[in-house]
Amino acid sequence: MEFLELPKRTSGNRTYGLTSIIDLGTPTEDLKNILNDYHHIIDTAKIGFGSACVTPNLKKKIDLYKEYHIKPYCGGTLFEKCYYQKKIPEYLTSLRDLGIECIEISNGTLNIPMQERLNIISQIKKDFHVIAEVGSKDSNQEMPISEWKDEMKLLLEAGCDYVITEGRDSGTAGIYEKDGNIRSNLISELIKDIDSKKIIFEAPTPKHQMYFIKEIGANVNLGNVKLTDVLVLEAQRRGLRSETFYLEDRECKLPL
């Protein structure tokens, strides 16, 4: 229905306006059917937490994502598990063997010192696209806003393609309160000092997604999106749901 005037979306090999899904175990044949229809509105796919270790036909799944021009990567929890067991070299070899070109560096479970994370990034950024996550998975742990900003800036300056704001697949930690409410003061402060095109906001529910669309614009980067929600999200981005009904090009804060 091209006669409607809708907010413009980035397309093709997007560098912002990203939809990053979380794969929580979708069977490969089911995934193929989903991607056949919706691959054009999916940019990256995270094999959730450490589930890549127990995912059947993992290589087949990775190849399927790549066939549809979607960049697959493993959740940061797997990186932390490998770090904890001093198996990072083996992990990197495994990613190469699988044909995965992106890696997530996080400290959501472990408290990995910033300098240690920066050292790892400097060693691997020539071989991988690096995404770094900021924030803890512990809902009782609340970082000061200044610390969020400092970590993001350091990680981006170190060569990360993007930084991810921790939110978990439940939306109850990191940038969210225990009850799922968004720490809106934190978000507004972050986007004052950090280029929002370089931030992927974990937003696991349509409610969370609508907040970021209305706050930042149709082309905000969103992560931890469930496969079943990708069409809903795209409709929201285009002002085709009641909550984003009045979204217009002039209201999109991310210029095209």
Automatic annotation (TrEMBL):
- Pfam families, sorted: ComA (PF02679)
Family matches, as InterPro entries: Aldolase_TIM, ComA_synth, ComA_synth_sf
Question: What family does this chain come from, according to its entry?
Answer: Belongs to the phosphosulfolactate synthase family.
Question: Which protein, by its recorded name, is this?
Answer: Phosphosulfolactate synthase
Q: Which species expresses this protein natively?
A: Bacillus aerolatus
